[in-house]
DNA sequence: CAGAATCCGTGAAGATACTG
DNA sequence: CAGTATCTTCACGGATTCTG
């Protein structure tokens, strides 16, 4: 659904760069019961399912990563993710915003300006990004080794 | 493609629970150039793109998480992920195996038995899972707070 | 500059039935 | 038990067009 019409729901539409009311918009991840994870039979939702739903997308990690460097404007993000079209970027941004990961600040200037930044919850995602980067590097190293050792049947 | 016919390609088909040749099967993530990430203009592939491609799926994280607890048989995994059909699980497993994350050991016993476990590379993913869990928990906490504070518009 | 609306292609995931 | 094969669906993401 995140692709359809949302029509300016949250308070970020008023036109002032406030910084609160990031969360609690009602749009939360569809937290299933972890599909039977044994780690927490108390009935609590599974963090992994939660994370999976957020990271499911093709760009979520990338967007969050770029935003982790600091606030960015719409087209700045586009520049960093050339393969991402405006429509998709908007969807991703709205999705992340709806989940309290990203904050949207509108500056009512003459040239319209909108800045995206990580919320507190989004900031808390940084360690994940950090580990992901570390793992990715390891993966790439392994790949190098595999290439160097390629053809040894 | 990971959904189509693979017809026993890797060496894990021979019938003995060996433990090498996990990697280097040739099937590696399509490492793009990070879509213009400024963090590494040297031309190296982006770890985030790599990770994103692996985590793209709907179940990858869950499967890896369960496997992180220790080796599991096919139906053990199915039991832990009831919503996952056999076909999809097979695809996921093959996908992860092809990327060197998961090892498949076939025990040529009378009741057919196959065990899945994390490879060394898969083990190296554990920190990511750990951080994901930590973040997920934080997200859920935030959600609780938001619910408790709901309606304050 | 920033975003909305719409249509469309792809492919991952699900259901079902069959195999060894 | 541990898959495999096929069909179908549908959400994701892309291209295009239009607005303020």
Describe the structure.
2 copies of one chain form a homodimer. Chain A has 153 residues and is mainly alpha-helical. Chain A is built from 6 helices and 3 strands, in the order H-H-E-H-H-E-E-H-H. Chain A has helices at residues 47-55, 60-68, 74-80, 86-98, 120-123, 126-148; strands at residues 72-73, 102-107, 113-118. Chain A has a 3-stranded antiparallel beta sheet. In chain A, strand 2 (102-107) and strand 3 form a beta hairpin. Chain A starts with 46 loop residues before the first helix and ends in a 5-residue tail after the last helix. Mean pLDDT of chain A is 74; it is low at 1-33 and 35-43. At the A-B interface, helix 1, helix 2 and helix 6 of A face helix 1, helix 2 and helix 6 of B. Chain A binds a DNA duplex (20 and 20 nucleotides) through helix 4. Chains A, B: Pfam families: HxlR. Chains A, B: Residues 46-144 form the HTH hxlR-type domain.
